[in-house]
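Z., the sequence and structure:
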Amino acid sequence: MSITATELKNNLGKYLFLSATEDVYITKNGKVVAKLTNPYQDRVEVAKSLFGILPKDADLDKAKAERLGGE
């Protein structure tokens, strides 16, 4: 959900309640400036969603070298 800073200011309680179940993005002048989120979200589910993204033969040192522009 995305709301303006003015909307947040006028209805803070409502958006604090909603942030328990979904991220609330706050915009100012059309640009996202903050995110209101639940600090106790299920971290295990987030970690599980990341499994399988990296290939099994991924090499951390090689990836760092490529990112830094050398091998």
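Helices lie at 5-10, 12-18, 43-50, 60-67. The chain has four helices and three strands.

Let me know what you think.
H.
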